[in-house]
Specification:
- The chain has 457 residues and is an alpha/beta fold.
- The chain has one domain: Glycosidases (TIM Barrel, Alpha-Beta Barrel), CATH 3.20.20.80.
- 38% of the residues lie in helices and 15% in strands.
- An eight-stranded parallel beta barrel has the order 1-2-3-4-5-7-10-11, surrounded by seven helices. A three-stranded mixed sheet has the order 6-8-9. A two-stranded antiparallel sheet has the order 12-13.
- Helix 13 links the parallel strand 10 and strand 11.
- The longest helix is centred in the middle third of the chain and has 25 residues.
- It binds beta-D-fucopyranose.
C-alpha cells in the first residue's frame, strides 16, 4: 500500500485506532426525526412546534422548515445501508411524537408506529443497535396549545407516548434516551426564543426544565416495566467552562453559569435536588415543585449520554441575562458556526461528570462539526477540517478511556446533513453530504475516514 492508497487521515501521527477502545465499544451516528424525516403531512403526522415555529417569518435563517428535509421517511433503507457500510454497530434516532398522537383520539397512530417498527427492523437487519430518543424537540403543536412543557399535564402525555413506543418497539429496542438536551428545550425554546416554541420568559423556561426532568424520571420505571433488559438514560448538552479572566468577578460568573448549565440538570438527576445557590439566584423564576417530584427525577438510570461540542468562556456581565453572565465569542480555531474546536474539552468533560456524579456508563451521544462543504467537480467532498475534527476528538476519547473514565460508545453528529434548527439548511454537520435538490447522498472524506477507522475499507 502506498501512501496514496491510505484512507484520508490514516497517516496522521497519533491517529486513534478502533482497537484502542475495546471490542464492545459502540460506534454510531446520531440523527433526529424533525431534522431528517420530512414527510411532514404523511401517514397521519400532525403539526409539531417546529412546523409552527418555522412558519413564523424570521425564525429560521433561510426561511426553511423540516417539511421535506432529507426525506428520510421514504429513503431510510438507503440511509441505514450507508450506516451499515460505514461499519457502524449502533444508530441513534428519535421518534416524532406528532406521528404517534394527534390529540384527538387518544390512541396511537398505527401508521406512525409501523414506520418506527420498520425502521428498527431495518437497523437490526443491518447490524445496527437501535438507540431510540423519545424527545428530540418535536412536541406536537396540540400539546403546546395546552401549555407545552410548562404545563404539568404534558408530563402525563409524555408517559403515554413512552408507553406506546416501548410497547411497540420494546421487544427489539433496549436502549432508550428519554430526552435530548433538556437545557435547549427549556432555555433556547422558552427563554432565549431561538428555538420552538419561541417563548422568552425565564420562569417559563425553568418550569419547562422541571417538567422535562420529571417526565424523564417518571418514564424510567415505566420503560423498565415494559422493556425486558431496558437500558434507560438521558442525553445532556454539556460544556467545559473557562473563566474569561482570573478576575474574581469572572470566576464567580463562570460558577453562576455552571449552576444553570450543568448542576441545574445533573444535581437533580443524581439525587441532590436543584443547586441551592442557583435556586437563590433565580429567585421568583424558580419552578413549582410538588412533593415527590425530586425523588421521581432521581430515578436511577443505566447510563448518561453526553453531547459535546465545545467549551464556553464566561464573563461577568451585570444585568445581562438572569444571572448576569455572558458567553464570549470564541477565540482561535472554530467551525463555520463559530464554535470553538477543542478536542481536549471532551476528555475533560467526561472526566468531570464521572468524578462529580459517578453516573455509571457514559456515552458520547453527539459530537460533530459544521463546515461549509463543497462538492468537487469529481463529486468528492473534501471536508478535511471535519475529518480532522473527528479524528482529534476520538484521540481525546481514547485518552478518557485510558484514564479509566467509563465511556462505552460514541455517536457522531450526524449521519446526514440536515435541518439545523434555526439555521435551516445553511449548516452542514453530516458525514454524508445531502444534495437537497436531488436528495443524493455522497460520502464526505470524513465518512470515509470513519469507515476506515471502523475497519471497513
Ligand atoms: C445539538 C442537537 C442536534 C444538532 C446539534 C448540532 O444541540 O441536539 O439536534 O442540532 O446540536
Amino acid at each position: 500500500m502506498t501512501n496514496n492508497d491510505l484512507p484520508p487521515g490514516a497517516d496522521e501521527p497519533h491517529a486513534p485506532r478502533r482497537a484502542d477502545f475495546g471490542a464492545d465499544f459502540l460506534w454510531g451516528c446520531a440523527t433526529s426525526s424533525y431534522q431528517i424525516e420530512g414527510a411532514g403531512a404523511v401517514d397521519g403526522r400532525v403539526e409539531s412546534i417546529w412546523d409552527r415555529f418555522a412558519a413564523t417569518p424570521g425564525s429560521i435563517r433561510d426561511g426553511s422548515s423540516g417539511h421535506v428535509a432529507c426525506d428520510h421517511y421514504h429513503r431510510w433503507p438507503e440511509d441505514l445501508d450507508i450506516g451499515r457500510d460505514l461499519g457502524l454497530n449502533a444508530y441513534r434516532f428519535s421518534i416524532a411524537w406528532p406521528r404517534i398522537f394527534d390529540g384527538t383520539s387518544g390512541r396511537p397512530n398505527e401508521k406512525g408506529l409501523d414506520f418506527y417498527s420498520r425502521l428498527v427492523d431495518g437497523m437490526l437487519e443491518r447490524g445496527l443497535q437501535p438507540w431510540a430518543t423519545l424527545y428530540h424537540w418535536d412536541l406536537p403543536q396540540w400539546l403546546q396549545d395546552r401549555g407545552g412543557w410548562a404545563a404539568r399535564s404534558t408530563v402525563d402525555a409524555f408517559l403515554e407516548f413512552a408507553d406506546a413506543m416501548t410497547r411497540r418497539l420494546g421487544d427489539r429496542v433496549s436502549h432508550w434516551i428519554t430526552h435530548n438536551e433538556p437545557w435547549c428545550t427549556a432555555i433556547l425554546g422558552n427563554y432565549e426564543g431561538w428555538h420552538a416554541p419561541g417563548l422568552k420568559d425565564f420562569g417559563t423556561a425553568l418550569q419547562v426544565a422541571h417538567h422535562v426532568l420529571l417526565s424523564h424520571g417518571k418514564a424510567v420505571p415505566l420503560i423498565r416495566a415494559i422493556v425486558p433488559d431496558a437500558k434507560v438514560g438521558i442525553a445532556l448538552s454539556l460544556h467545559p467552562l473557562r473563566s474569561a479572566s482570573a478576575d474574581p468577578r469572572d470566576v464567580a460568573a463562570m460558577e453562576r453559569h455552571d449552576g444553570m448549565r450543568y448542576r441545574w440538570f445533573l444535581d437533580p438527576l443524581y439525587g441532590r435536588g436543584y443547586p441551592a445557590t442557583t435556586l437563590a439566584q433565580v429567585g421568583e423564576a424558580a419552578p413549582v415543585v410538588l412533593p415527590g417530584d425530586m425523588d421521581a427525577i432521581a430515578a436511577p438510570t443505566d447510563f448518561l449520554g453526553v453531547n459535546y461540542y465545545f467549551p464556553e468562556t464566561v464573563a461577568d456581565a451585570p444585568g445581562h441575562g438572569p444571572l448576569g453572565t455572558r458567553v464570549l465569542p470564541a477565540q482561535g480555531e472554530t467551525t463555520s458556526l463559530g464554535w470553538p474546536v477543542a478536542p481536549q474539552g471532551l476528555a475533560e468533560l467526561l472526566a468531570r461528570v464521572d468524578r462529580d456524579y459517578r453516573p455509571g456508563p457514559l456515552y458520547v451521544t453527539e459530537n460533530g462539526a459544521c463546515y461549509d462543504d463543497v462538492v468537487g467537480t469529481d463529486g468528492a467532498v473534501r471536508d478535511t477540517a471535519r475529518r480532522r475534527y473527528l479524528m482529534r476528538h476520538l484521540a481525546a476519547l481514547r485518552q478518557a478511556v485510558a484514564d479509566g473514565v467509563p465511556v462505552k460508545g460514541y455517536f457522531a453528529w450526524s449521519l446526514l446533513d440536515n435541518f439545523e434548527w434555526a439555521e435551516g439548511y445553511l449548516r452542514r454537520f453530516g458525514l454524508v453530504h445531502v444534495d437537497y435538490a436531488t436528495q443524493q447522498r455522497r460520502l464526505k472524506d470524513s465518512a470515509k475516514w470513519y469507515r476506515a477507522f471502523l475497519g471497513r475499507n
